[in-house]
Amino acid sequence: MSFLKDIVKTKKEEVRLLKKNIKTIESSIKQGQKNYFLESITRDKINIIAEVKKASPSTGFLKRELDPIKLVDDYCKNGANSISVVTDSVFFKGELSFIKNIKNNFNIPVLRKDFIIDEAQIIESRHVSADAILLIAKILSVNELKRFIKLADELGMDVIIEVHDEEDIKKALKTENKIIGINNRDLETFEIKLNTSIKLATKIPNDRIKISESGISSIKDVSLLTEIGYNIFLIGTYLITHSEPGKILREIKKVKS
């Protein structure tokens, strides 16, 4: 079963509907200075992008009664560098409004994590006050990556290019984007292999910033990845499903890099 194929098909329909109102959305965007997302995820010895995610196509609800504000409050009090919000509503039960609500209540940069396939979604991301967006190399051409990065920069947002294999990395390196996220989750099957970050670590040049994403489920995993050069981690399920996410986040931040 290909989750990715189904998700992209759904996104195309969402984009078609979004474009009907995109001019109105674009006109309401407030122009401002570049945000501090990049600075926030590189300031500490161990940097955590803590995720807000309600569900997953492979596992169903992680926390059915998830309160994004309560969760982010816990994250912020325990050292999160930034917040990732999964906004896909069909497969992940997310909401765009989560970003706006978080930005209204906390002074922390927010990444919109979704399956972005069109400029309209980038404009929409800025409209809800996102500070950064995720672009998945697997579903975009090099030209699309370059075009989307340019628009995001013009709107004051940073970009994480997400990669899953060496071919994706080749695409990412054909752009000038600084941040590359290595996702340990196979987007076709949603199977997690931490070895993906291990195998691809040396393929990312030193002039780029690398992040290990998904599948981190213990302090031991973080320790292992720091030994091969990672110090930025995007963590969702491990924190969300834990009874004390703030405590776990605090312990991860103490891992020696």
Please state how the strands of the largest beta sheet are arranged side by side.
1-4-5-6-7-8-9-10
Quickly give the structural class.
Answer: alpha/beta
The coarse silhouette is globular
Give helix % range: 40-55%
What is the architecture at the second tier of CATH?
Answer: Alpha-Beta Barrel
Taken together, the total number of domains comes to 1
What is the third-level CATH name, the topology?
A: TIM Barrel
- Describe the largest sheet: 8 strands, parallel, barrel
Overall pLDDT metric = 92
**Helix count?**
12
Measured distance between first and last alpha carbons: 38 Å
> What top-tier CATH class fits best?
Alpha Beta
Radius of gyration: 17 Å
Poorly predicted regions are none
Beta-strand content: 15-25%
CATH level-four homologous superfamily name: Aldolase class I
How do the helices and strands follow one another from N- to C-terminus?
Answer: HHHEEEHEHEHEHEHEHEHEHH
What would you call the quaternary organization?
Answer: single chain
